[in-house]
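LAB NOTEBOOK - FOLDING QUEUE
OPERATOR: T.R.
BATCH SIZE: 2
PURPOSE: Compare the predicted structure-token outputs for two unrelated chains run back to back under identical settings.
PRIORITY: normal
REVIEWER: second-year student, initials M.K.

ITEM 1
FIELD SEQUENCE / FIELD STRUCTURE:
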Amino acid sequence: MSALSALPFLRPVHLRSPRSSPGGQRRHTLPASEFRCLSPEDAVSVFEIEREAFISVSGDCPLHLDEIRHFLNLCPELSLGWFEEGRLVAFIIGSLWDQERLSQAALTLHTPQGSAVHIHVLAVHRTVRQQGKGSILMWRYLQHLRCLPFARRALLMCEDFLVPFYQKCGFEALGPCQVTVGDLAFVEMQHAVRGHAFMRRNSGC
């Protein structure tokens, strides 16, 4: 069994297909769902969702296709995708960082000795937005990080209007981020990842 498949929060969650009720009526159920780490083969699907989500708002993407492939080759265990009936509907991509705060270099680097997980991007397919999938996926991702012994903190940068969303996910604002992209300025946010021993007692890691 691989280390990733042993993590309880990454085991596939499959919802059963509709069955006939005693009266002959077919009961409606949700599509089969699966959460798993992404692979380089998922890069194009990831980029298509990201491009639609970000270009219309800011004119650019946090990660370009070659950068997505770069991170999914180096640290696939720091990504998480939500698939419904085999189709990617939402994802998170992260990498390791070894400084207290994010800097411009954090946009492209993965530092294996780091203990902070830099969350580069969270995006949801346009057809399933406004359904709470972003917050659910972030919760699953943070649970996954708590099963990784090297992860101590999660860091991200976002625009002001997204701060309330990430606060609801348990992040705290650290103040203005040193990183700028064009004319855009960001708030840096942090989420503490609890100790490994705590998670062994409480989540089966």
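ITEM 2
FIELD SEQUENCE / FIELD STRUCTURE:
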Amino acid sequence: TFFMLQVLCRYQHIWNIDLRLRPAFLGGIMQATELFLKGNKPPAMLPKRGEYMLKDIKRMAKYYQVPVKISEGDFQRIFGTSTLGAMRFITAMDMTQPGYLEPLSREFWIRFWSQREDISQPENILAVARQAGLSSELTQKLLEMISSPAVKNRLRETTDEAIKYGAFGMPAVVAHFNGEPHLFFGSDRLELLGSVIGEKWLGPVPS
């Protein structure tokens, strides 16, 4: 998802698109779809697939020029970290000042995937907010909002919306084109996305 976020943000002023980031909770998507997919599990939980993913993520990080650092044992760190607080913080931002959504999302990804910090910890959420350029007043307001029913309901709604469009994992991109929604799953579908909307794929780092 970090790869997809970075590359789509690079293309938002090159392709004729209106890019809208919609915070959704992956855990909720996995839970809802496992009833229909007979045990929908993250790929890394399958031993051989996890072994392959470890190598592939390193290759993709170089190809996409995204600073992901991953090593053996990291999958346990990932599965053992709750991202719900971070997702609610991002959702509160989406409800308050959506213009900050892109830098805030990026800083959460960098802290988790590049600096390998535990983003469930309040001090790391504060550090992310500072790095994204948020004022201390706005940060405090968002922290107060994350336990509110309004934020919880909004995150639930966007998660349900993703499921409605057919999402079963992340990254999930819905392209609304010619009056019809088109779901794309996976960061390796950007070239296909461009083809469907009539835009040219110029590689992961377009000039």
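REVIEWER COMMENT (ITEM 2): Residues 104 and 132 are 5 Å apart (CA to CA).
FOLLOW-UP: none requested
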